[in-house]
Every structure is written in structure tokens, then in C-alpha cells.
């Protein structure tokens, strides 16, 4: 189950502090971000496609399915969400398959801030975290004080994790320091009175960022600003998580870790609906970052329908047959 991400060690903190000059002003940050190596589009897409052909068989597949279940942020982010719907989703997260108690719990339940208290109560005693979107999700079009109030309300209600959205307009206009400072301010708003803090996932909405180079730049920008996780998408636009974009973010996390010693998680979200897709992403994580990242602490799936397919495939492995369409709940 998810655990608290440890504080940076002295060496990592020191190496990160040594990079402070690159965020000293807008010019320095721009030079650093535009000095990152350009992305080889053909090479990136070919590598993602190759990793997608790797097969996972029998025992390894059963393990991978359970691992994928344990990495899901089970999500409901609709205007018609009700306390009853959220409680039902929490019950499913705790016990995904009522006919099989060996199925692991999901990593988190993700809801709007006004539903955090309901989810927190429903999940009491479980190992499942409550994640909340904030900062005027999904568009992010609000004044900074409004965004910070959104975050503080969610944290005060009991959110363990905050999923914020960056100001894509500011980023695309080249106002990198503005985006950096906003992420830092949200990170500070995640703090609790007892000195602990909700973990911060920073959503890029990669489908709106236009180029792979921009995805690499925003990944480094967010990690320099203190992101605990970097996340592809809101799931509310036409283009969400894709294998090449996720691979690029994994590579950025690898390079950032090598440079600073700081470990950051990755969360692809939106459009990942099948077991086959989920296993491709797990292979990608293992091949790029290694087994250290293959835990819910460092890799998540933002999904709503993925869990049902994982449960169906899990039963197929154990019984040799597929269940009918009423085997899983329709959330």
C-alpha cells in the first residue's frame, strides 16, 4: 500500500540546492529548459512501440495484474457526483471483487475537494489514500489565491494527495518562472499544521502542450518546483496519456534522479482502459526506471474503467473463462 514518501536525504537536498541558480530568475530558467536535449520524435515513438510489443505471460501476468490494481487512483470527477456515488466507489476500492478477497486494494480514491470528507470517512481504517484535484481543475483558469484556497480546503478536509493543474497558457507563452512559482506556492499550501504535507501531483495536460520538447521542459520545471509526482493529463481533453509521452516523462524522472538524487513518481491518466494497455506501461516503467519505481508509491494509473478490465482478466487467469458483463460494477 502507499506509504509516506521519505524526506530528501542530505546528499539529495544538497544536490537539489546546487541547482537553485537555474530558477533564480526567468532568464536563467528559460536558458536551462531550452538547453535540455531536444527530443528525437522518431526514436521516442519507436522505443515506445518496441516496449509495447513485450509480452507478459502466466505467473508474471497474474502478478502484474495485481500490481496494476494496487496502482490505480480510482476516480470520479463529474458534476453529478453525489456522496452516495463516492461511498460506493470507496467500497469498490477497498474490495474490488466481492467474490475474491485476494484482490488488492487500489492506491487512492480521487474526487473533487467537496467530496474529500465523504471519501475520508468511507475509507477509514483502509490503506487507501484520498486524492483530490484542485487549482480550478481541469482548466486551471482562476486567480492564484482561489487556487490556493482550493488546495487548502482539500487538505483541511483530509486529502492525502493533491492533483493540481498547471497554467498551460502561461507555459505556452514562455512564462516559465510564473508556472514554477505557482507550483511552489501550491506545494506550500499542501502543508498541514502538524508539519506533514499532502503529496503533490502536477498535471501537465500533455495533449495541449504541442511538442515533445515542451513535455520534457515542463517535466523538469515541475520537478525543480517540488512535485512529488508528474502526471500526464486531466482525462478531460481529447488527447490524454500516450505511451510516447509517458516514456518521455519516465526518462525525465530518470535523468532528474541521476542529477539530484531526488525520486519523483509518474502518473499517466486518461484513456488507459485495458489490461493490455496497463501491462505495456508497467513494462515501460521497469525498462526505463527499474523495479524501484514499480510500487504505488512511485507509479499510478489515473483511471475509472481500467479496474473492471483488470478484474475480468484476473478471473480469466484463475478460472480459464471470462465472466458475463454483470461480473463487475459499472461506476
SSE-based structural type: alpha/beta
Number of helical runs?
13
Write the H/E string, N to C.
Answer: HHHHEHEHEHEHHEHEHEHEH
Overall 3D geometry?
globular
Number of strands: 8
How are the strands of the biggest sheet laid out side by side? Answer: 7-6-5-4-3-2-1-8
% residues in beta strands = 5-15%
Fraction of helical residues: 40-55%
Low-confidence stretches: 1-6
The largest sheet, given as strand count, sense and whether it forms a barrel, is: 8 strands, parallel
The radius of gyration computed from the alpha-carbon positions, rounded to a whole number of angstroms, is 19 Å
Straight-line N-to-C gap: 23 Å
Chain-averaged pLDDT: 92
Keywords:
single chain, 331 residues, alpha/beta, 8-stranded parallel β-sheet
Q: Describe it for me?
A:
With 331 residues, the chain is of the alpha/beta class. 46% of the residues lie in helices and 10% in strands. The chain contains 13 helices and 8 strands. The chain has an 8-stranded parallel β-sheet. Strand 3, helix 7 and strand 4 form a beta-alpha-beta unit. Helix 7 runs parallel beside helix 9 and helix 11 runs parallel beside helix 12. The protein is globular, with a radius of gyration of 19 Å.
